[in-house]
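REQUEST FORM: STRUCTURE PREDICTION
Request ID: SP-0412
Submitted by: Lab K.M.
Chain count: 1
Length (residues): 384
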Amino acid sequence: MDIDIYFQPIEALKYAKNTLGYFTDFHTQDNFPFWEESDIAIIGVNEDRGAESNKGCAIGADAIREELFGLYHHNKDIKICDLGNIYPGAAVEDTYHAVSDVVQNLIKKNVFVVILGGSQDITFANYKAYEKLEQTVNLVSIDSKFDLGNNEDGISSSNFLSKIILHKPNYLFNYGHLGYQTYFVSPGETKLMNDLYFDSSRLGEIQEDLQNAEPLIRNADILSVDVSSLRNSELSSNGNSGPNGFYGEEMCQLMRYAGMSDKLSSIGFYEFNPNLGASKMSAKLIAQMIWCLVDGFSNRKKDYPIGTKEKYTRYRVHVEGTEHEIVFYKSDKTDRWWMDVPYPPDKRMRFERHHLVPCTYAEYKGSSDNEIPDLWWRTYRKLN
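STATUS: Completed
RESULT:
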């Protein structure tokens, strides 16, 4: 279909040679990009009717663009297009429909999608694009809290995760959460995460060693970034930011991990509010986060799920005192690790993309010392 009907054009500007803007094909009054041949498509979503305590984030996309496209681009082979901003619907559900329709069409053509929000409930619309493709997915969120909220209310930035978990038909295989702050999370929410065998890591756990976040990000199909996960001294243009959170350089490293993942196919940056705080400096930080994402994308190595197991070194570990043998794979190209989790043969169609789980060398080392990794157990419970 012609997805151009959903988009407002953006102002045509001239950018210096070798910048991201110089190499980007923009949707202007006279041009709609030939997006099918792009590697990365950027879309703005001017929607904040679902925002909690952060009205004004609907106008964030253009402010990010002002800072993003002046940054220098170092891989001319990566083709980027900017499709403009999706028209807000008469109702918020109309905006969701437009987002999911656009993302579905882009992913079908293997175009990596970057969403500039808008409020984080747009993640629900992003997820529904995969439902239309009947693709079981892993969703990861970087946020200071779990957005479970009250499921009885309409969809908002504070409860969209509940809506995804309970949505029927359900195509969510795993949910991962990075950077939650325990004082924002109720014991009931923590218990629900554990009961569903979801993966969640506290802010301190990630900051202790950022590499602990890489396997979870590498396993995601969708990544949702709430910029309130950055501390207020780093990014003040958000109605929900606080004194603690990620530092800018930490978030940039996480975005590079995201770009390098061969599995990730869409990402959204949400809750940036130009009406609050030092908006220009906040926009600069988000622009640099996206630059790191693009830089990581430029360095993808075509590992799993694109590569074959023939290019991996296989390690078999029998855990004493159990019936389990854990098979690990190490990429000969990148030294990254995966573990193979068994599943019933009759579930092959549903789980083929999810049984080879990214992990760390430490988890391989631990299994060699007769410790079954928690990640292996959680995945085994979901698969069987």
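NOTES: The domain at 3-298 is CATH 3.40.800.10 (Arginase; Chain A).
Reviewed by: T.R.
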